[in-house]
Predict the structure of Glycosyltransferase family 92 protein.
Amino acid sequence: MFNNFKKIVILCLRLIIFCFGLGIIFNQISLLINVFKEANHSFSIHLYSHKNKDCVVPTWNRVTSKDVPYSEDFKKWAAVRIGAFRHIKDAQVRLLSSFVYSDQISIVTTSQNIDNKKVTCRYYDCNRDEVPYSSFDTVVVPMTVITCPRRYGAEFVSVTFDENETPHEPIPLTFRIYDEPIHELSVCVGPLYGKKSKWLEIVEYVEHYKLVGVSYFYFTLFSINEYDRTVVDYYAKFGYAEYTTYITEYQELGWMFHLIQTQDCHHRSRHHSKWVINVDIDERIIYTGSNDILYFLRSMPASIGELSITANRILTTGTIPEKLKNFANLQSELTFLKYNKTTEVSWYNFKGIIRPDLVYVLFYHWSFRQKPNVHVISIPKQIIHLRHYRSVDQNSLNGNWMEFYNGSLKETRLAPDFEQQLIKNVKEKVKYVYDQRWV
Ligand SMILES: *[C@@H]1O[C@H](CO)[C@@H](O)[C@H](O)[C@H]1NC(C)=O
Ligand SMILES: *[C@@H]1O[C@H](CO)[C@@H](O)[C@H](O)[C@H]1NC(C)=O
C-alpha cells in the first residue's frame, strides 16, 4: 500500500519536472524568434539606431475616426478667411504644438499665411514610424491650425503641403482627452515679449487671478530673461501653470505673432479648462457681482460660449525694477498700489471669457465662430470688468493712447480687503522665489 503511494508520488514529480523543462525550451525558442523578428525590423527601418520597442497602445488611443466634427463648416469659413489675418508672409511653417482630443487632433504651426491651403496630416507610432495608410488630406483652418481625424496608436504627428515634401520631424501629441475639464477657470496669458522686466508683473498677475478663483495659467514665452523666467518656473513646478516656448527662424517675436499664441492657447486649453479668460499680462479681472466669479459662471446656461467683458485703463508711467533689491521696499513697487488714475469703463478693446470647447475660431481675445446654437453675451460692467494697467510710455505698443482719450480720470483702487490679501500673497511668493542670499 505504502509502496504504491511512493511510486505514484515519484511518477508525478517526474512528470512535473518534465513539463517544466518542456516549458523552458518553448520559452527559449519563442524568445529567439522574437529576437530575430525585432532584429529584422530594426535593421530594415533604422539602419543606425536601436532596436524598436513594441508599441503598447493605451485604451484612449485605440481610436480611428473618418473625419473631424463640423469639417464642412470649417472649410466654408476657411474659404472666406474667417479669423485669418496674414502677417510675416515669408515665415516658415514650423510645428508649434499638437493636441489629441476624443474627436480630433489639432496641430498648431507658426505660420500666418497658410490659411485655406491644402495640407496632409501624417501620423506616427511610438517609435516615430509612420502609421501605414494613415494620412488624411484637408485644409488649414482656422488660420494656422490643421485639424485631423484620430488614428489608432498615433503618438506623433506631422504635416506635408505637397506630395514630394519630406515631412517635418513629427511632434508629440499633448493629451487632452478628459471626461471633465481639469480646471474650471483658467487664464490664457497674452504672449510675453520685449525687454521690459516682468517678474513682479507676473507675480502680481497670477496672485490677483488666483484670488479671483482662477486655478491655472497658460503662458506663452516669446522672450523672457532668466531672472523673470524663474517665477514662471515656480508656478509651473507647483502645478499652477504651463508654458509654451517658440523656436522660429526669427531672433525676436513681437506683437505680430500674437495671433499664433491665440490659436495655441485656444487648443491647449480646450477640454483642459472649462472657462478661459483671454487677457494680456497687464489686465486684471474685477468681479463685483454677488458671491464670486465661479458662482456666476456656474449660473451660465450651457449654450453660452463667451462672455464679453469691458475694460477701463489705469495710467502707468514707471517701469518695474530689474531685480528685487530690498525686500522691505517691495510694497512701494507694486503696480496695483502705485497707480490709480483710471479712465471710464468702455467697450473699446473688450476681452472675452471663453469656453474653448464651444468656440471654434478665435481672433485675438474674442471668438469669431461658435458651435451651432452657442451664443456670446455681453456682461454689464456692474458685474465684471477689467483693470488694464496701461503704459503711457511712447515706446510701448499704442503708448500714445491718452492722446485719443476724451473722458475724465478718476482715482480708483482694488477693494481694500482684496488689496490686503493680494499684498500678503505677492510678498510671500516674491520672498520665496527672489529673496536670495549667497552661501
Ligand atoms: C473726442 O472728442 C472729439 C471732439 O471733442 C470728438 O470728435 C471725438 O470723437 C472724441 N473721441 C472719442 C474717442 O470719444
Ligand atoms: C491715488 O494715488 C495717489 C498718489 O499715490 C494717492 O495720494 C491717493 O490717495 C490715491 N487714491 C486712492 C483712491 O487710493
